[in-house]
Amino acid sequence: MRRWIVILAVAVGTAAPASAQQVIKLATLVPEGSVWDRMLRNTGNEWSQTTGGRVTLRVYPGGVAGDEPDVVRKMRIGQLQAGALTTVGLAEIDPAFQLFNAPMFFDSYGELAAVLDELGPLLRQRLEAKGFVLLSWGHGGWVYFFTKKPVQTVADLKATKLFAWAGDDRMVQLWKANGFHPVALAATDIMTGLQTGMIETFPTTPLLALTLQWYRITPNMVGVGMAPLVGGFVVTKAAWDKISAADRVAIQEAARKGERYLSVEVPKQDTTAVGEMEKRGLKVVRIGDAARGEWRSTATAFAAGMRGGIIPVDVLEAATKARDAYRKGGGKP
Questions:
Q1: What pLDDT digit, counting tens, does each position of 297-329 carry?
Q2: Nearest CA among 277, 302, 163 for reference residue 223
Q3: Taking the CA of residue 222 as centre, how many other CA atoms within 13 Å lie in the half-sphere pointing to its CB?
Q4: What is the pLDDT of residues 15-64, one digit of tens each?
Q5: According to a count of CB atoms within 10 Å of the terminal CB, is the N or C end of the chain lower?
């Protein structure tokens, strides 16, 4: 009898209590000290406060844990528990997120919000089926091409060496099939690529271009927006399942608060960023109506090439339906 009491005591003493502290290690490409980094750290502080220290968030910004495919791989093997990812990293988990990489599919943040409202539950389900939980959406601003030499036309862009995200071979091949000259690099190698001449053009948001000072090497911005930079705050299901139900509610609310903050602040700061860069030498290449039509027709053809092979057909059709319904006056289709 005494032997069983000793065994039971050891088992109870070594079992992890339900209230044990959970440290969520999150990696991201967002620059340290940026609006996104500050939001993540504020979210982490709120997690600690609202859970009584049971759940804490440790942030690794600036690509110190590698490019987004590296972050996703580390999450899968348990080295990291979370990531603040762009749609490139999210598409590494599930191809449905390639939708947000289709050029000029959206014309406004209102259209984006309508599509996220309609497709949000489906996209969350697809992530959960792969072992990830989406806590909130991220907003990075509107993407433009930044170039070393002024680019006015699509032909001008095709003549440049264009950054393409390494690891997404289908997108690289699609760029080539449309007459462009993509150079596949990790996002963490963009600055080196610009400095060495490996690339001459890259797509990013004005706020990121200003924050990272990349515009000093590419002092021209094509005055046609390509797409909103969408992101997501994801946690592995394995880590999520270790958190109590009550703490999950508090964590989700803190994450949604960060989402609301970025949805207001980032578009506002993007506009300000363009003005700040213009004061320091950035040239915004204005695109006339005729040239703008060429950009749109090229983008439409490019997006059509993404249908099926890159973007799942059902996801693209549902997104198109939601977007078009918003254009006709709002409301769900």
A1: 999 999 999 999 999 999 999 999 999 999 998
A2: 277
A3: 26
A4: 444 446 899 999 999 999 999 999 999 999 999 999 999 999 999 999 99
A5: N
Helix (H) or strand (E) holding 229: strand 227-236
Distance CA(149)–CA(30), nearest Å, equals 26
Do β-strands 82-86 and 22-28 pair in parallel, antiparallel, or remain unpaired?
Answer: parallel
Answer whether 188's CB lies under 8 Å from 29's CB.
yes
How much helix, strand and coil, in percent to the nearest 5, is found in the chain? Answer: 55, 20, 25
**Torsion, Cα of 240, 66, 36, 224 (10° steps):** -120
CA distance 177 to 185: 18
Smallest Cα–Cα separation from 233: which of 63, 48, 30?
Answer: 30
Distance CA(263)–CA(141), nearest Å, equals 9
Provide the residue type at 46 as one letter: E
pLDDT tens digits along 68-105? 999 999 999 999 999 999 999 999 999 999 999 999 99
pLDDT tens track for 183-203: 999 999 999 999 999 999 999
153: which DSSP letter?
S
State the Cα–Cα distance between residues 306 and 297, nearest whole angstrom: 15
Query: What is the H or E stretch that residue 75 is in?
Result: helix 68-76
- Stated as kind and residue range, the H or E segment containing 42 is helix 35-50
Total residue length of the chain: 333
Residue 64 contacts residue 33 (beta carbons within 8 Å): no
Most distant pair of Cα atoms in the chain: their distance: 90
Taking the model in full, what pTM does it have? 0.90
Helices (H) and strands (E) in the chain, counts: 13, 10
Sequence-separated (6 or more) residues with CB below 8 Å from residue 41: 59
